[in-house]
Protein 1
Amino acid sequence: MKQRWKRFKQSYLFYNFKRDKVAVVSFTILAIMIVLSVVAPLIAPYNPYDTSAIDVMDAEIPPSWMEGGESRFVLGTDIQGRDLLSTMLYGMRLSVIIGCGAVLLQAFLGIVIGMLAGYVGGKIDAFLMRMADVQLSFSTLMVAILISAIFQLAFGVGRYEELAIPLLVVIIGLAEWPQYARTVRASVLGEKKKEYVEAARVIGLSSTRIRWRHILPNTMSPVLVISTIQVANAVMSEAALSFLGLGMPVTKPSLGSLINSGFEYIFSGSWWITLFPGVLLVIFVLVINLLGDFLRDTLNPKLYKG
Amino acid sequence: MFAFAIRRISQAIIVMLIIGLLGFSVKHQIGDPVRDIVGVSVSVAERDALRDQLGLNDPFLVQYVRFVKNALHGDLGMSFFFKKPALDVILAKAPATIELVLVSSLIIIFMSIPLGIYTALYPRRLFSRIVMGSSIVGVSIPVFLTAILLIYLFSVELHWLPSYGRGQTVNLWGWETGFLTLDGLKHLVLPSIALSSIMLPLFIRLIRSEMMEVLETEYVKFAWAKGLSPQRVWFIHAFKNTLLPVITVGGVQLGILIAFTILTETVFQWQGMGFMFLEAVERSDTSLLVAYIIVVGALFVVVNTVVDVVYGLVNPTVRITGRK
C-alpha cells in the first residue's frame, strides 16, 4: 500500500495535478461535497425524512440573514417547512448515490458490450455498434425520459416513488451505456493489434484471460476519463427526471425535485428554495466537468469522437 | 451513392419497425384500448365482446402487423383524454415545438459561428478566455435551472417579458404561429434563449476545435505562403472545411434539442409536444404516449438519415467504407 502511494506520488498524473490550480481546487470542492453527503445524517441540523419533526407553520421562512429569517434555519425552509440546508444535504446524498450507481451499471454494461464488440468483431460488432448509434442518436435524455415514463405507467405512481432510487439507477444506466461501449470498443480495437496481445496468444493463454487480464487494464485511462464526465451527466439526468416529476418524490427530494418544488413558489418571491439547491447542483456538476477536462488533457487517451 | 442511400434508408426502416415494436409492446402490456373507448360504465360481457371485435385476443404478432398497417395510414390510436386521434393531437401541438426549436437553432447558429471562429483565431485574448470559461459553466447548468433563473430575473423582478404560455397566435393555413404578433414574439424570447443555452457551449467548443485543427494543416500554410489576405484564408479556405464535421454533429444535436424541449416547455407551460407528453404520462394516456414515441422516433430517424446521406454526398470516403 505504502509502495503504491509512493509510486502514485511520483507519477505524471500527480505531478500535473499539483501544478494545475483549477484541478486542485475542483478536486478539493468535490471531496468536501462527497464527504458532506456521506456524513449528511450526522451533520445535518434536522432530519428532513422525519415527518413528526416538520411543522408546516415553518414553511417558506427566508434565509437567516434576511428580514423574517430565523437563526435556527440558516438557509430558510422549503414549502413543507423542512430546513433547507438539511434537505439539500440529504438531496445531494441521493444525487451522489444515484449518479455513482448509474455510472457503475453503465460501466459494467459498456465494458462487457464494448469488449465483446471490439474483441470479437464481425457481425456482432456491427450489430452492437449500430444499436449504440441508434440509441445515441435519440439522445440519452430522451431515452431516459421515455423509459421512466413507461416505468411509471407500468408500476403506477405510488410504487414507482417507493422504488425510485434503484429504478433511476437502472433508467440512467440503460440510457447512457452506449458512450461507454463506444469508448471501450475503440480502445480495445487499438490494443488488440499490439504485440503484447500477440505474445500472450503465442504462449497459449485463453482468449478470456487475454481479454480481461491483458487488454482491459490497458483500456482503463479512457474509461477513467469518461467515468468522471458520466457521473456529471448521470447527476444532470437524475435532476432533469426529478424536475419533470419522473424521479425522486417530494417526500424524499433529490436536488432536482427540490428545484421543482421551489419553482412553483418563485412567483411569490421565495427564490431560495430554487436557488440554493440549483447552485449546489451546478457547483457539483461543474467541478466534475473541470476534473474530467483535466484528466482528459493529462492522460490524453484517443477518445472516440462524437 | 445510390447504393449507400438505399442502405441507409433500409436501416432507417428497420429502426422504425423496432421503435414500433417497442411502442406496441408498451401499449399491449400497459394500455387498455377498451377503456380508452368506452370508459368505466360498461358491463364486462360487453367489454369482452368489444375485445373480440377489436381483435385484442389475436396473437401478439398479428396485432403488431395490424398496428404497423394502421400506423402507415396515419392511425396511431385514440387519445383517451382528448377523445381524438392521437396523431391529430400531436400535430396540433407540433407548430409550437417546431417554432421553439427553429428560433433556438437560429440563435445557436448565429452565436456559435462568430464566437467559435473568434476563439480559434485569438485563443489567448481575454474575451476568448471569458467565452471558453463561461461555456464550461454553461454546460454544467441544467436547462430547467437556466429557464427558471431567466423567468425570475426578467418576469418576476424586472417585468420585461412574459413568463409562460405562447401569447397571442395567428392561424396561418392551419398553422398556429406566434411569429406574426408582437405578443407571440415576446413570449418566444425566454424559452428559446433557455433552450439554446444547453447547445451553444457545445457548438462553440466544436467549431473552435475544428477551426484550430484546420488552421494547422498544410494547405492553410500554403495559402498563407501565397500571400492571400487573412480574411480570405480564414473564411474561404479554413472555415469552409470546418463546416463538414459541424454539419454532421450539428444535425444530430439539433435532433437532441427535441429532448430538451420537454424540459423547457414544462417550465414555460409552452403548449407544445413535450408539454403534452408529460401531461399524457400524468394522465396515463398510453395511446398518446406511444404515438408521441413513434412520431418523435420517426423525426429522429429522418433527421439522422438525411444527415448521413448528405454527409455521404459531401464526403465520399464514408459511402465507400460504409462506416463512420
Protein 2
Amino acid sequence: MDFLEWAKSPWGQNVPIHIAWFLIWVALIAGFLFFIVHATYLRYFAKPKEFASSGSPLIAARIPEHVPRHSLTARLFHWVMAASMFTLLFTAFLPKLGIQFDWVTYHWIAGSVLTVSILFHIIHASFFMDFWSIWPDKIDVRDAGRRILRFMGKAAPPPDKFAKYPLENKLYHGAIVAAGLSAIVTGVFMMFRVRTIFFPRNPYLFGDLTWGMIYVLHGLAGVGLIALIMVHVYFGLRPEKRPITKSMIFGWMSRDFYLKEHDPRRWPVETPTSSPTPQGAAAEGLRDAG
Amino acid sequence: MAVIRDVMPAFELLQPSSIADAQKLLEQQGRDAWVLAGGMDSFDWLKDRIKKPKVVVDLSGVAELKGIRATSDGIEIGAMTTLTEVIQHPVIKEKYTLLADSAELVASPQIRNQGTIGGNVSQDARCWYYRAGWPCYRAGGNICYADTPEGRNREHAILHAERCVAVNPSDTAPALIAVDAKFVIRTPKGERVIDAEDYFVGPDIDITSLHVLKPGELLTAIRIPSAWADAKFYFEKVRDRNVWDFPLLNVASAMVVSNGAIERIRIAVNAAAARPLRLKAVEDAVRGKPANAATGEMAGKLAVRGAVPLQFNAYKIPMMRNLVKRAIGGVQEATWTS
C-alpha cells in the first residue's frame, strides 16, 4: 500500500504527483470512529466535570445574563470561512468519489475567499482581539496534567474552570491552523497551474519534484481537514456544547453556562452596570475582555 | 515513456459473441478491461506500452453490434459498423450525406475499412505528450505539458480548455451532433440513450476521458432520426496532409432552408476543444436569417467568441471563424479572411 502516487517525469525521475485517494476514505472513517468512541465514552463512562472554585459570589452576581463571547466581525469571519471550507472540501473530493462536475473554478474561487478571510482573521485577531486567548497557557498545561491524573483514578486537585476557550478548543485551533495554512499556501502556488484572474499561468515556477511535494502536502492537508471538520461539526451539534455553538450565531452565551464552565478570573467579562474602579476590577476579574 | 514494439504485450483476450456477454465481461473486469473495436486507436496504446490493460474485450465477434438497420424513425448504426460500410450504405448516401462525407475524410481507406463508427467517436486524444506516456493531467498527473510557453500545441484547444488542452480528434462526431443522433449505451442497469453531444465530456468534468462511458458500459449503437434527413448539409475538414490526417479543425452543419431563410439548423465543430462543440449561440443567431455570406460572417464571429489561443495555435481562431462562415453562407459566397 502506497500513500502517495508516483510517476516518471520526462527526465526519468520518479516524482510524487499526489496522495493516494483511498486516504479520503481513511479520513472519513477516522472521523466516524471518533464520533462513535467519543459518544460512547460520554454516554457510559464519563464522570461529571469537577472544577476548582472560581471566585466569590460577588463576582458571579455581577455577571450579566448574556455574556458576550464573539463579536459580529468574528462571527461573520467564522461563517464565511466555514462556507468556503465546505465548498473547498466538496469540490475537491466529490469528483474523486465519482460525482463529476466542473469543480476547479469553484475550488479556486472558494480558496481565494478562504485566503482573504484568513488574512483578515490574522490581522483582526492580532490587533483587535485578545490574541493569546486561543493559545494554551501555563494553567491549561497544569490542568491538563490534573485532568489526566484524575481520569486515571489518581489523586489530583480539580482543574480550574476554563478561560475563554477550553484547552481542547485551543488544540483544535492549532491543528486547523497547521492544516489550513498548509492547504492555503500550497493552494496559492497551485493556482499558477490553472487559469485564474490573479496571475498568469507559470507551470515552470518549480521543478517536477517540488510541484509533486506541493500537491502531496495540499492533499494531506485536505484529507486532514476532512477529519478535522467532521469533528468540529460533531462537537457543534453535541447537546452539552450547544451553548457554545449558539454563541457563534448570536454572539453571547448564558450567564449560567458561563459560570458553570468558565472562570471569570481567566475570562473576565464586561459588566453593564456599577462599573467598579479599575483597581478593583482587575483584582476581582471584572474588566473589558476587548 | 513510449517503447514502440512490433509485438503486442501479454493480456487476457476475451471474445464475447453477444452484447449481453460483452457488457457482463466489462462489468466483471471493471477498470482492468480495455474495449477493442477496430483497434485503430487501441493498437498504438498497447504496442507502445503506454496503456497496460490486464484484459482486452474484443468486440469483433459480436454480430449484434454490426450493420445498419432502418427504424421507425430513421436508421440505427451498430457501433462496430466500419466507416467504409457507413460511407457506402445507400440510405446514408441518399439521406444523411453529412455522415458519409465526414466518415470519408477519416484517415485512409485501409483505416476506414478496419475502423468503426463506435471507435471513431470513442477514440482518445492525440496530444503527443499524452500519447508518449508523459504523466500529464489526462494520464492522471498534475501538469499539462502542451500548455506551457515552450509546449508544442499547434493542434490543441482554443475553447473550453481546463488544465488539459487536448482536443477530440473525431470527424464523425460533429456530423452526428449536427443530425441530432442518439447514442445507445448498455450499462449494468440496462440501456441508456443519450444525445450525441452529451456523449462527449470536457476536462472540466472528467480530465481523463473524452466520453461519458464508465467501466462496465458499452456503446452499442447510434440512432439517427429522420428529422434531419435530406437537410442541406455541410462538412469541411482542415488537416495538414489531405491524404491522411487528423483534423486541425472540422465543421458539420445541417440546415433546413425555407424561402431563402434558415428555418432550422444544427452546427458543430471539432478539434477546437476536448469535446465536439455544438454551437447553440450560432444556431439561435442565424435562425430566421438568410443563408448567405453576411449571415455566415456574423455566425463566424460569434462562434469564436471566448476563444483563447495557446502559443502556437492562434491560426485556429480565424480558421474556425471561416469554417463556420462557409458552413452557413456556402463556399462560393465566402472569402477567407484572417
Protein 3
Amino acid sequence: MTDMDNVFKALADPSRRRLLDRLCEVNGQTLGELCQRMDMTRQAVSQHLGLLEAANLVTAVRRGREKRHYLNPVPIHELAERWIRKFEQRRLDTLLDLKNHLEGEDSHG
Amino acid sequence: MDNSTFVYVTFIRTSPERLWAALTQADFMKRYWFASHVECDWKVGSPWRLLFPDGRVADSGEVLEIDPPRRMVIKWLHESPELKAEGPSRMTMELEPLEGAVKLTITHSMDRAESELIRKVSGGWPAILSNLKSLLETGEIVVKKF
C-alpha cells in the first residue's frame, strides 16, 4: 500500500474521523482523554489511533509516562493538493453552490 | 495543560544531508517557503531571522541547539506586538533517516495554553512542508501562493 492508500483507509472510518476532530479541538490528548465522550472501549480507541499513526495523520509523543497524540495535517494537505486543487477548485465550488441551491429549493418545495 | 504545541511529520525521499541543506540554505528555502527565507549562520547562540520576500522581519530568535544533519532548536519570537507579548516559543526540527527516506518532525511549542502564535504558525507549515517534500522528490513545488 502506498502512503496515500493508508491515508484514505484511515479516513474511511467515522470513528477515526471523529478522533481527528477531537484532536483538532484540543491537540495533544492522552488515550484516556480521547476515550472520554467516545462510545468505544479503550482498546478500540487505541486500535483506531494505531491506524491513524500508521497513516501519519496522528503523531504520538511520549513525555515521561504520558503519551500525547497530535493531529498531523500534512498528509491531508497533500491529499487536498493532489485530489482537489488539481481538479479546479473554483468549478467544484460552483457545482457545490448549484447543488446546495437546488437541494435547498427541493426541501422547500 | 499550560502548553500549546503542534507536531508535524512528513516523510521525504531524500538524504538527511540534502534535507538539511534545504532547511538551512536561503536560496533553496525561498523556493518552497513562498519566497521567504531565514537569515542565520547556524551556530549555537546565533541570531535567527525569518524574512518576508520584501525584506521585513516576520519572526526573530536564536539558535538554541544545532546538530547537523539531525536536529536544530530555535527560540522563535513573532515580530507583531500582540504575538511578541506572548513571549518566545520553541521550534524543534528533527531529521531521522529511514529506508530511502527521512522522517522530518517539526515541533513548535510555547508554555502557555491556547497560544495565538502557535495557532498562527500551525496554519502555514502544511503547505510549506508539502512544497519542500515535492521540491526534493520531484524538483517542483505544489502550492505556488499562500
Protein 4
Amino acid sequence: MDLIEETRTKLGPVGVWLPSAPLAPPADVELWATRRIEELGYASVWSGEGGRAREAFALNGTLLASTGRIVLGTGIANLWARPARTMQGGGTTLAEAHPGRFVLGVGIGHSFQAAKAGSDYRPMEQARAYLSAMDEAATENPPRVAFPRVLAAVGPRMLELSGELADGAHPFAQPFEHTPYAREILGPDKLLIPTQSVLLGDREQARANHRQTIAMMRRVDIPHYLMGWKRLGYTDSDIDDVSDRLVDGLTAWGDEEAVVKRVRDLLDAGADHVLVSPMGDSLESIVEQLERLAPALAEVTR
Amino acid sequence: MSVGIWTFSFEDKEISAVREAAADVEELGFDTLWFGEAMGREAYTHAGVLLAATRTLRVATGIANIARRDPLAAAGAEQLLNRAYPGRFVHGLGGQRVGANPVNAVRDYLAAMDEALPGPRPQRLLAALGPRMLELSRDNADGAHPYFVPVEHTALARETLGPKAFLAVEQAVVLDGSRGHELAREHVAFYAKNAPHQQLNLRRLGFTDHDLSTISDRLVDAIVAYRGDQSVADRVQAHLDAGADHVCLQVITDDDRIPLPEWRHLATLVH
C-alpha cells in the first residue's frame, strides 16, 4: 500500500483542528485537550504555529510522546520559521519516533511573515523551491519511515503544486464549495484534508464569530482566504455583510446532526479527512463541543 | 564530578536503538547526554525523543545551529522542552556558517528569542571558542560549550567567563589501545583541515602552521585523550581543575556504531 492509501486508512474520516496558536493555552491544557480528543475517538489533532513562538516539532514531539494512538498534524508548520532542510529533519525525526502518527502540513504563510524573515513574498515560486529543497534533503538523508506531507493551499496554482510536489492539500477556512473544487484540481490520488468550522449553536453566533475573523484578516492583511471565497462566487457584499450564504458556506452550525451532515457532504465531495474545528474562545469550550459531537461523528464512515 | 557523554553516533541509527542507548547513558550514571545536529534529525525533535526515553538524564543540544531556524521557533522549542521536562533540557546554541560576524548574529538571535517569548527558559550555553563569543556566553547566556579544545583553553575560557557562567567542555577520547594514536590523529585532522573556526582557535592557542599541516603529535595529544584509562581520567580532572563545570566525553571509534561498550567502560573510570 502506498503512503497516501496508508494515510487515508490511518486517518479515517474525521479529525480535529485546534486554534491553539491564537489561543495560546498553557502547555498542560493543550496536552489535556489532545489526550481528551484521543479518548473521544477522533483520529487526529492538528494545530498551527501562528505568529508567536510556538515550534511545531518540539511541540508535536511532546504531544506524541504523551499520547498513544492519535495522529498529530501540523496545520501548518510555517516555512518562514526554518529552512527546508530543518523542516525535512523535523518530519523525519517525528515519523521515525512515532511511525504512522505524524502528518506534516507545510505552508508559505503570509507576506508579513516573509517580511519578518527579511524576504519578499513570491508564494508560488518560494513554495516550489522550498518543497524541492526538502526533497533534496530527503535524498541525502532518506527517512527510515516515510511521512505524508501536505501543502496549505487555497488557490488553483497552490492546489496544483500540492498535487505535483506534495502528497496533497490542506485547505484552511474555506466554504463547502472549495472541497469539490480542490478535488477536481488534485485528481483522485492525492490527499485532501480541509478544515471545517463548526458550531453547536445558531447562525447569529456563527456570523458574529466570522465578522471578527474577517476584520482580523483585513487588519493584518492576509488576503488568501477571502480571495478563495471570492473565487468560489462569494461577493464583496457577502463578505462585508457576512451574509447568510457566506456563514452557511463556511460553518456547519446547528445541532450534532447538522455537523454530521456537513462532514458527510464534504467526504462525498472529495475530502479524505475532515478536520472539524469548533468555534470557541478556549480549548475547554472547544473540547466540550467535541465531546458532544463525538458519538454522532463516530458513526461517519468514508 | 560532572561528566557526560557527547555523541554524533545517533544520527543514522534506528530510533529504538537511540532510545535504548539514551536510557543506558542514564543508567550508567552520566548526568548529561549531548548530541550534534548534523544531517538527518532536527535538534529539538531529537532532544524531545531522548528526553521522553529517559527520566532524570539531562539532554543537551551540542549544538542547535541558529542558521537552521528562526529565533521564534528556537524560543518556542526551548520553552516547551523546559516545561515538558523541567530542568532536563540544556540548550546549546551556536552560530556556524552564519556569515562574517557570528558574535553579532548570535547576540541578535538571543535578543530576538527573549523578545519573542519572555518567561522561564532552560540553561543556554553557547558554542564558544574565541574571547568575544566567550564574553557573549558570559553576558547574554548562561555559559559556554567549547568543542575540540585543549586544557589550556579551558583555563582561558574560565578566566573570560568569570566564576558564575557554566563551562561545559567536550573532550574526545579513544579507548582502542592498539590504534589510539591513529584514530586520535584522524579525528584531529578532520577539524584541523576543514574547520576554519577550529584552525583559528588552535593558532590563537599557539599551535603553528606546522602543527596544523602535519597534525603534530603535540596537537593530537592536546586535543584527544588516547593513552589508556589513566590518561582519560587525568584529562577530565585537568579540565575540572582548569575551571570546567562539566566535561562531556566523545568516544572516537573507527566505525559509526553507538559506542555503548566504551560508554560502559568510561562510567567505571569516572565514577
